[in-house]
Amino acid sequence: MLVIALRSIARGLEGRPGLVSGAIHAGGLGVRLAFMFALLYLSGPALLGQYGLLASIEVVAIYLAGLEFHAFTTRRYARRPGALRLRIALASHARLLCFSVPAAMLGAGVATWLFGLGLTPLALFGFLVIVATGSVAQEMLRFIVMTQRPVAAAILGFIRTALWQPVALLFVATEQPLEALALTWMAAAVVSLLWGGWMLRGAIFSRIRPGSRYLGRGLKAARNYYAMASASVLQSNLERFVLQLFLGPEAVGIFTFFQNLANALPALIQSSVLNVWLAQLLNQFGQGLQGRFALVAQVQRKVLVTCAILSMGVVVGVTGISLVLSRDTYLYNLWILPALLLAQSLIMWSQPLYLGLFGAHRDRIIMIQSLSVLAATLALCVLCVAQLGITGAVVSQLAGGAGLALLRWVVFVRYRRAGWV
């Protein structure tokens, strides 16, 4: 019933996709903010840190095991959208998921042991289901976006990342709060998978069976993008892992509180701006159309304005709530939030440049950019956290964001002058 009701809402609101999807993400941000403050009151930063580590392990495991095959299929679909292309793409991903889902589950399970999370068997089961469903939902989400249904994509994300959190708070006072979080999160993950399947139901069930040569060609075409995406997701979560190794879950919890708020910014920008223009950007740069550079500049301006407005709103709102609740730990570290928002704003400002390079099939230079920034950020993060603690993690993320944005801009300008994009 929930899936059918949400589907009806999505159909009725598709006339304003950017506004509506942005509003859904804003609602999700509000839920996550309330959830984190509630965790602080009911338990403390250690539980939030453990949850933050699980969230990071999940996304890293999904990306590393997923092989980024969509870099091949979404490009083919963007060049000539159609029902047959969509069915071929989804059938190809279905075959690859037979590998990526078990691999992601294995990697996630090993990571929870390496970082000493000490999950109960039931919590571990719930977390592995989260990872498994996330591997599938990730691919569904991409094709929902490619079929130009950003509202439906935003609903999928809301179910998976926010809908379950108020329910989970009812069980935080139990003897195993992390187990309760994992199980409620798992339930929402299953619902989000059903939602994604319903939205793509016309293309999922087909008799198409892509051959091994086709899959191999796609994996070869996506290899540079896979290296780039893996580097990007590792860079985004690096600070939490290093903080856990050096300082433990309480430090991770404080950093996670502000990082989750800052990370909501790219989700909002992706939903309200980039998803609306994604297919057009890929199509124009894929075909080398005349207005592609003007389109990039237009999207960058929209991203910049939206980042500024949202960042100010988040800082003012969180400051007010922190003052009302009088939580000294978070008030003392409130400076972290604008610093992380600035880092995310720089990355999102450069995202249209990245999409232009991606649409023009400049995968190798994208890979070199990402691996270079990851290597520099890793070294800087370990050094800074060892010397400065949480402050070092903030410095590392800000430097990484600025470095990535600068590299993207320099490369895009150079390639434009050379006629390579």
From TrEMBL:
Q: What does the entry list under GO cellular component?
A: plasma membrane
Keyword tags: Cell membrane, Membrane, Transmembrane, Transmembrane helix
Spell out where the chain crosses the membrane. 20-42, 48-73, 94-116, 122-141, 153-174, 180-200, 303-324, 330-350, 371-390, 396-415
What is the topology of this protein in the membrane according to its UniProt annotation? Multi-pass membrane protein
Protein's cellular compartments: Cell membrane
Q: What is this protein called?
A: O-antigen/teichoic acid export membrane protein
Q: Which organism is this entry from? A: Sphingomonas koreensis
